Amino acid sequence: MAGQHDERQFPRREFLVKTLQLPCSAAVVTVLGPLALGSDAAEASQGDSKTAERYFGMGIQVDKCIGCGKCVEACKAENDVPREPFYFRTWVERYVIHNDGEVSVDSPEGGIRGFPREEREGDVLRSFFVPKLCNQCDNPPCVQVCPVGATFKTDDGVVLVDSDYCIGCRYCIQACPYGARYLDPRTNTADKCTFCYHRITQGLLPACVEVCPTGARIFGELNALASPLRRLMRKSSLQVLKPALNTEPKVFYSELDGEVR
Amino acid sequence: MLLVLRGRFVPASFGETGHYRADAVDVVAAQPLRYAGWQVCVECHDSEGAMKSRSFHRTVSCEVCHGPAAAHAEDVESQTPLIPRERGAECLSCHEYLSPRPTGFPQIIERLHNPLQACIGCHDPHDPTPPEVPESCSACHAQIARTKAVSHHLTLECETCHDARAEHRENPRSFLPRKPTAREFCGGCHSENADSPADIPRVDLRDHGERYLCWQCHYPHHPES
Q1: What ipTM did this prediction achieve?
Q2: Structural domain that includes position B136
């Protein structure tokens, strides 16, 4: 997207007001929607996150994941994600680093039924599981490209999809560097992890966290002082996926191997 | 003109909190629950909850095994949760050996770990502490037990072929168990007309190694063909 830096100086309120006063024909929104949201995201990353009351995030302890796939199962059940193997809001990848340094990654059916034994069992330098999901970026590329404002970041930091407004254009699916979005074949609208927004707003844990047997997934508020998530953040050095893209994920990984992409 | 169009196409709550329809947040938040969360379960099932909270499975949530059960918690009469009683996928999805699993996580090799018996026969799912290794033959005959455990005879109890009296375990040499003495013993499972499960391989006793005892050719604790 062109000229993101310029928008940072652009006063956001004014800009939004202008956008709204324009006729809402699809063509205009296609051009302006992304621009307006570009500034939104930029501002959020500068200040919003520190002032918002609740700001949700997740920590993933890679060294605790046993690859049982219960999170994938629970996510599909809780959120009515299509059962076919190409639709996932969360999935688990198995990384195997062979003795010659070759890295193989697999995720049979997202890991929903667990994993078979490796074929080259004798030839393994190290191997581990990495759970993946929408990174709930603070600077979300999917939001920036949505032509109709159907995907957006809430005040508590969660990126959601307005399925009534989504036109199924797939821009967001293309734009997501983490492959976290899919087009729901039943509604023809984009869909993805919501951090189980309907649960967390009632004080429950996301379904994947509820069923994780080893505490590999930790959910919480990034601003709360005493929470398991903050404890994790204090005691281990955390990484995010594809940091160079400046998407500012709110899903943090501990003990992440350098080979993980 | 512009205002008319706007009223027509811009949804009511658009822009209230950002460049999106604020109502959409409520729509997403109103999605129904499928997983109630273990805190709800233990309100009624306090004994399972108490037992589990002190056990190895304290971090394993109820609905991991019983499936999403919010519907049951709402209406206990007509909605019953799953109960995975049979040996198989449920326990093994976490406990079958896989090399990427963190070392130290308790794992078994299903094929070798007390085959054919239901896991919950020995491990209470709400407190799976392994049973004390029974006063079994393997304590003293570890080599034989280990050999047998990886053989085609893994499912056979020692007692199937040796009737060892309890005294043998206290005073082994004075009370030696019996060993099979005749070909017909093995024939009880392996002869053509034996009354035994169909998947057991058969031989014709009359012309199969007929001049020898079976164990002169096949080691009974690790028979190979």
Answers
A1: 0.75
A2: 132-225
